[in-house]
Amino acid sequence: MLSHPDEISAVFQGTALEGQPVTQVADSDVLVVDWPDPGDLLTGWRAAREAMEVTGRRPVAFTPDFGGPLDFGQYRLPGLADLEAASGELDPWPALHAWEEAADMVMETVTLENVSVALGTYVGEPEWREPTLARDLLPQIESPTTWNTLQYDLFELIVGHPARLALMPGRDRPLRVYVPNRVQLALLPTTSPWLTARWAFYSYQPEPKVLAACLRQWHQTWGAELVASWDCMLQLVTARRPEFGQESWDLARQHLALGRDLQIPQLSLAWSLAHSDTWVMEKF
């Protein structure tokens, strides 16, 4: 693993990161390289990711927008060996799903608006004014029910039904990606996709071992890699997409457990995950 900024700069010659300053973060084993175009983060991240075989360091984007320069030295971070072991032994989902089950809402009567919201329709969109799919599905929903049950019932009525899939509102809407004012790529002293949890900034995040276990499962199943840690947001890219069906439904539930403030209905999120290589978590 390379540890001197000049060594890293030499590796970046001929890449999109050529000429960008590389510096050492005080009191840590992390180096950072500036990236001048926050709106095109993936170009810089991919350049550092492709150089990882030589640098021995995995890039994750951070921003000083929320609290000044990066200061990894102030945190008591777990050892990588302990984190590696814990990430392979821990099943993080039962505890993360517990809040969702406790917060489930009883719905005495299901309305057209309830169904429209569950389908991911937003006020002002054409589907809100003329909710064709919602009108078709509403008579097939029994009341009373709960919010979680309503979403799954709608999911079962849509999946494998081409005519209804064609009417899914917002089916081409990408997940919202945050663009900060400034970006630095932290070059972390690991090549592991899940040990990046040791350094991630994520508001009210679970213990690093919990986040590492999530990232490990996602990488092994979907080829997911952490691209950015924006204080209350995480951004990932994936190599494989789930099929729209039970696997995208289950994955959406995991996303909502870790990113509790996504404010996207599970059905709509399941559709987005089946049609996107970018993942976003939010937790304020």
Task: Explain what the structure shows.
The chain has 13 helices and nine strands. The strands form three sheets. The chain has a four-stranded antiparallel β-sheet. It has a three-stranded antiparallel β-sheet with strand order 7-8-9, covered by helices on one side. The model has no long low-confidence stretch (mean pLDDT 88). The chain has helices at 5-11, 41-50, 52-55, 80-89, 93-102, 112-118, 126-129, 132-137, 147-158, 162-165, 208-222, 246-258, 266-273; strands at 22-24, 31-35, 58-62, 106-107, 145-146, 183-188, 225-229, 233-237, 278-282. 39% of the residues lie in helices and 13% in strands. The relative contact order is 0.16. It is of the alpha+beta class and 284 residues long.
Question: What descriptors fit this protein?
Answer:
single chain; 284 residues; alpha+beta; 2 domains; four-stranded antiparallel beta sheet; three-stranded antiparallel beta sheet; 13 helices; 9 strands; 39% helix
